[in-house]
From TrEMBL:
GO terms for molecular function: nucleic acid binding; zinc ion binding. Residues 465-480 form the CCHC-type domain. Residues 1-66, 389-464 are annotated as: Disordered. This is CCHC-type domain-containing protein.
């Protein structure tokens, strides 16, 4: 802000300090010295009425005010000056730091902070800049308050320009979004109109077809409700494709020999289109019963598997039933069921023969485990081999040796004689080769003589000593050849 002595401009009237209250009162009555506030003009230094914007009584009513501050716009002339000096605004160059601090994102908030909430706050901001300007090391160029006013105007103008740019960008974005939404709405409206036209066309086509169908029914239907089309009878040799079929006229329903006995014992009961009312009723009742069991089919089938018992004569039928039941449970490939599966363990619990169990255990150790398919096949073979092996005969009278009753002690033993223990059949490992199934070497049953010497004293009810590894009574565990062979395979890393 600069000063000039132009006579055309109207100078600001200076305000002199008065200590006397009577001399200060006339000056306070002039309107150009009043503050911009809703208070009523009053004598200088006193308040007469409370502010009009509040209902709370003003505690400073009737109390003398101290004038601690005067506006910086007033000029205090020196004694040597005859006339007041006029001030005017000039340009002020903002620093790059101040310009970079004003961004488009916060330009509106920055503008509100620069103009402040009231004139008093704005005056405090100007005073702070003036004090900083005076304390700077640069030489002063004019009055500090004038520089503060110029700086404030430049900063407000620059912030306002940034706010206008941010507003223009926001308006441009909103216009682009509005145009995009208008275009989308127009496209959707066109598609909706086309879909409505297509629906109307389809509805008209359906109505036309229904009308044609009703017309044809009215023309072809008789009073009795039957179609009067004549039936055309053709001989079999005159039939052409697709009426003729290349399927064989004779169906082979011969039952295999392996299942003929089982089917004859428990015939299959199916409904074959009988006209007997009782037969039809029985079939429907049985069908209804099975339909009610369908939600609990899993539990029923599991109970069926648990209740199965392995018998040597019916081992093939039992295995087929086991497979069919697993098929109903969703298990198609039995080779995927390993030894840890519940169905594998369930089948193993049904095997009661210790010789077969030991043979299966050895086979599992030598073949890196078994699956359910191998278990069913091996068990069937072992049971068939055991059932076809002739049982040992009872010892003849020539093999016994009578002991003469020489003393009363020998007589009390009831004439016990040393008898020879009959031969027992034991089941061993099955070794399956890598070639075809016919080349499998099954060494399942071997007849070994039992121990012939038995102690003369004691009871005959105790079990004979057996090998704990292969469960054979012919030797002990320390002399077991199968154990030694397994240990050699384990040491060689082949097992």
């Amino acid at each position: 802000m600069a000063k000039t002595s132009d006579s055309q401009s109207r100078p600001l009237e200076t305000i002199t300090e008065h200590s006397d209250e009577s001399s200060a009162a006339p000056n306070a009555a002039t309107p150009q010295h009043n503050n911009a506030s809703p208070q009523v003009a009053s004598p200088a230094g006193f308040t007469t009425d409370p502010p009009s914007w509040t209902t709370t009584p003003d505690p400073s009513f009737g109390v003398k005010r101290e004038r601690n501050r005067r506006s910086s716009l007033y000029l205090h002339p020196t004694q040597g000056e005859e006339a007041p000096i006029q001030w005017y605004c000039s340009s002020y160059e903002l620093s790059s730091f101040e310009k970079n601090a004003v961004t488009k994102e916060d330009s509106h908030d920055r503008l509100l902070r620069e103009v402040a909430n009231s004139n008093e706050d704005l005056q405090l901001s100007l005073d702070a800049f003036a004090n900083q300007y005076e304390s700077s090391s640069e030489p002063l160029q004019g009055d500090p308050m004038a520089a503060a006013i110029d700086h404030k105007f430049e900063l407000i103008r620059y912030t306002a320009l940034k706010a206008v740019e941010a507003h223009d960008e926001a308006v441009a974005v909103l216009d682009a979004e509005q145009q995009h939404h208008a275009k989308v709405v127009a496209d959707m409206t066109n598609k909706l109109e086309m879909a409505e036209k297509e629906n109307a066309t389809l509805l008209n086509s359906v109505k036309d077809l229904l009308a044609k169908v009703a017309e044809l029914r009215a023309q072809t239907t008789t009073m009795a409700g039957s179609n009067p089309f004549p039936t055309v009878e053709k001989r079999p040799f005159t039939l052409e494709s697709p009426y003729s079929s290349n399927s064989p006229t004779i169906v082979d329903i011969t039952v295999p020999k392996a299942y003929r006995t089982q089917i004859q014992a428990a015939p299959i009961k199916y409904f074959e289109g009988s006209t007997d009312v009782e037969t039809v009723y029985t079939f429907l009742k049985a069908l209804d019963h099975h339909i009610r069991l369908l939600p609990n089919a899993f539990m029923v089938l599991n109970n069926k598997l648990e209740k199965m018992e392995l018998r040597g004569a019916d081992i093939a039928r039992i295995n087929d039933t086991y497979r069919a039941t697993l098929d109903l449970l969703g298990v198609k490939d039995l080779s995927t069921i390993d030894e840890s599966h519940q169905y594998f363990q369930m089948y193993m619990r049904k095997i009661k023969d210790p010789h077969i169990l030991s043979t299966l255990t050895l086979s599992s150790l030598s073949n890196n485990g078994l699956n359910l398919e191998d278990l069913l096949r091996y068990t069937a073979r072992l049971m068939v081999i055991k059932s076809t092996t002739p049982s040992a005969k009872n010892p003849s009278s020539s093999q016994t040796r009578d002991v003469a009753p020489s003393t009363n002690r020998n007589q009390s033993k009831g004439g016990r004689a040393n008898t020879k223990k009959p031969h027992k059949a034991s089941v061993h490992n099955i070794e399956e080769g890598s070639e075809e199934e016919s080349e499998e070497a099954v060494a399942a049953v071997s007849s070994k003589p039992a121990t012939t010497n038995r102690a003369a004293s004691g009871s005959n009810n105790y079990n004979p000593r057996r090998c704990f590894f292969c469960d054979d009574t012919g030797h002990m565990q320390s002399d077991c050849a199968a154990k030694k062979a397994l240990l050699e395979q384990l040491k060689a890393g082949k097992a």
